Amino acid sequence: ALAGNLGLGRPALPEEVAAWDKDVRPDGLGLPEGSGSVEDGEMVFAEVCASCHGDFAEGVDNWPKLAGGMGTLNHEDPLKTVGSYWPYLSTTWDYVNRSMPFGNAQSLSNDEVYAIVAYILYSNDLVEDDFVLSNETFLDVELPNTGGFIVDDRAETELALFSQEPCMVDCKETVEITMRAAVLDVTPETEPQAAA
Amino acid sequence: MTDKSDPTTTRRGFLKTGLAAGGAMAAGGAANAAGDPLITEVQPWAQELGDGVDATPYGMPIEFESDVVRRNVEWLTADTISSINFTPIHALDGTITPQGCAFERHHSGAIELRKEDYRLMINGLVDTPLIFTYEDLERFPRENHVYFCECAANTGMEWAGAQLNGAQFTHGMIHNMEYTGVSLRTLLEEAGVKPEGKWVYVEGADASSNGRSIPLEKALDDVLVAFKANGEALRKEHGYPVRLVVPGWEGNMWVKWLRRIEVGDQPWESREETSKYTDTLEDGTSRKWTWEMDAKSVVTSPSPQAPITHGKGPLVITGLAWSGRGAITRVDVSVDGGKSWKEARLAAPGQDKAISRFYLDHDWDGSEMLLQSRAIDSTGYVQPTKAQLRDVRGLNSIYHNNCIQTWWVKESGEAENVEVS
């Protein structure tokens, strides 16, 4: 252990750590006891989630879609959802528990969070409609894209490639404009900065 | 004296007439037969009195600079609470970003957290889990450092093509400040990290929490728990009263309103490092833990929001360069779309993981330019083109777009965001 000796701060009480340390890891560390069914989840979801995320977790307007998009990750416009993209179910539980619903976070009971997560799994066609998620069944669920991530490999794939002595003169014969932002015209109108 | 109702003296009016006349400013500064009345006639400010020292206990910029402000782009996000705005880098100079116009990125809004209500917890694999008050933090040995904070998504809208027309929008998810705070190492040593401790999890006091995992090696290296920026307390929107400063690494990890640091033996794989801040490659696999921000630069003037209004002749081409892997050692500038390059002048020697200002003093002949800048850092890394990045990553990475930017400066002096072959 590193040795500190300024004597600042005070020991944290177990109640305090329990109140703030709610994170859940992929190996299940941090999961509280509890359970919730797809059926319960459908009701809770309809009440506190569906106004933004849709009745079937398909998303309303610009709000995030939580379901769908399977097999689109190598498409031109991938749809990244819990089902198509997220690697770990723990993240879904942890994030819903801590930060949702948007504007009324930390208002759900543990059982409600289990139920919502069960319903999100169902919306992604990953479990049957009689599925019950609990701290005991949690690690049985593997999301489809668990194997879809690699640790940053820029050191192998980019750094050497982009660390060569750059060209200074006669670097290319011709230069053509291939795309123009003014054609899209999606920039907010602003006053140009004139020399004052 | 200038008359603000006269369209030729407002900014927009001036610009339009200036562009039309091809150099109205030069003409305005020249003497007519009777001399320049701004000189030959006594002006009110040379005769009457200005404001007293009690007029402005804490000042704002003069009204004539009212366009130097943060801007948002409404269509980028579903709402303005979990959203982004942009630093007006096109109008700034030097390297220090004024806090009042430094960009914001929140996931559940900018919260108000009093120093009296502030608590910082260290828990997990430590000898003694600890609680600090704000006052406690001020009693630890302090450090000062200048670092850039760049959002991982800066320039992200430009992956598929030239989209937003202005350096503020394409490159303005960045600020550069002088931070005062306590090293994270000092705080972790106070709690005593157990030998099994390999990672720290950091989270904010806001509803989004923004939890992220950081390897212990980085946490013990140069990470700062900061409470001052550019000499004064952090702004509310930048994490008041305490934020994390993670030099060289993507802005998302600079957790604001920092409330808890947990030591663990494995990463947490939180939402902000799985669903978000992971970079999808062409084959559908995604990079995770892409923490460093690679060397990057942009010409801030001339640029679409900062056109040339003075006609031919001497022109200051200027911009910003930075690297998360070290110091900027050189910036090259091209006026012909990368056919040829000239080494620009750094205003000061590059500092580790901080912004550098560069200048190229140019004699503009009034013809079209395709302006580019290319940063080189102390590791020898050379800022790539967008084509080079796309060759490796495809179009769907969203984050970490550090490509060379091109501005098409037209004969009129106006500039546009373009891509070139």
Automatic annotation (TrEMBL), chain B:
Keyword annotations of the record: Metal-binding, Molybdenum, Oxidoreductase
Protein name (database record): TMAO/DMSO reductase
SUPFAM superfamilies referenced in this protein's UniProt entry, alphabetically: E set domains, Oxidoreductase molybdopterin-binding domain
GO molecular function annotation: heme binding; molybdenum ion binding; molybdopterin cofactor binding; sulfite oxidase activity
Ranges where the Oxidoreductase molybdopterin-binding domain occurs: 113-270
Annotated InterPro entries: Ig_E-set, MoCF_OxRdtse_dimer, Mopterin_OxRdtase_euk, OxRdtase_Mopterin-bd_dom, OxRdtase_Mopterin-bd_sf, Sulfite_DH_SoxC, TAT_signal
Annotated ranges, domain Moybdenum cofactor oxidoreductase dimerisation: 287-406
